[in-house]
Amino acid sequence: MESCIPWWGTVKKNRCNRINNKTEQDTTHKGSKVPLFKILDMEDMGVISTNKNKITLFYNSENSIGKQCYGYVQASDKEVLGIDISKTNITGTQWAELAEKLEIPVKQLIDTEHPDFVELYGNKAIDMEAHDWIKILDKNPKLVQFPVLVFGENYYQLTSGADFKKYLEANSAGIEKK
Fold first, then answer.
1. I need a labelling partner for 56 at 20 to 30 A (CA). Which of 21, 67, 100, 149 fits?
2. Could you give the CA distance from residue 77 to residue 59 in angstroms, rounded to a whole number?
3. 85: number of Cβ within 10 Å
4. Residue 6 DSSP one-character state
5. What is the pLDDT along the chain (178 residues), one digit of tens a residue?
6. What sign has the CA pseudo-torsion 18, 20, 23, 25?
7. What angle do CA 157, 161, 166 make, to 5 degrees?
8. Which helix (H) or strand (E) holds 98?
9. DSSP class of 21
10. What is 146-164 written as a DSSP string?
11. Best CA proximity match to 42, nearest among 103, 107, 93, 81
């Protein structure tokens, strides 16, 4: 079996799942009573890097909103990392983190009215688990509804290019998102 966190020793994959579910059984470090995720500070760790001086934009260059948002972001005076999801593979963990930080279910990242979605899954309401929605995003990233802006520790879904300006001004003024 592979290890999933190599620096503390070999951990079997099935035990990694329990760590992610944050159960105390099998997740303590070398006999400690403190849960391993606390030792590793896993509750606050993310796979998407954040920096108050850097803007990261997850966008699709194949749709107009994505192009507009990327143009606005490029025009800012901040360091920009543009991640074009039509050309760059986003991991399931990254999709899950984006949804969590946006405080929405993964399903809401997806445009269920997109013609490709309707063609594949029909136009009736679909009830699936988060990991199933992540699989849809992995296979069809163009189904992402809106670009996602990561600015400092804040995450925003941009419904138009002009949204970026609103969030940039709010962050520059030290105003927290609502």
1. 21
2. 19
3. 22
4. G
5. 433 444 334 333 433 433 444 433 443 444 444 443 343 344 456 788 888 888 999 999 999 999 999 998 998 888 999 999 999 999 999 999 999 999 999 999 999 999 999 999 888 888 899 999 999 999 999 999 999 999 888 999 999 888 887 777 665 554 344 3
6. positive
7. 70
8. helix 92-102
9. T
10. S-EEEETTEEEE-SSHHHH
11. 93
Sequential DSSP letters for 39-61: HTTTTT--SS---TTEEEEEE-T
d(CA 75, CA 162) in angstroms, rounded, equals 12
CA nearest neighbour of 130 among 155, 109, 161: 109
Q: Is residue 154 within 8 Å of 161, Cβ to Cβ?
A: no
For residue 129, give the 3-state DSSP assignment. coil
DSSP of 59-71: E-TTSHHHHHHHH
Q: Which two tokens stand for residue 103?
A: 């405080």
| 157, 65 Cβ separation under 8 angstroms | no
Distance CA 75, CA 178 (A): 25
**If you search the block for the tokens 């995003």, which residue do you land on?**
137
Answer whether 4's CB lies under 8 Å from 16's CB: yes
| CA pair distance 49, 153, nearest whole angstrom | 9
Residue type for 84, please?
A: D
pLDDT of residue 29: 42
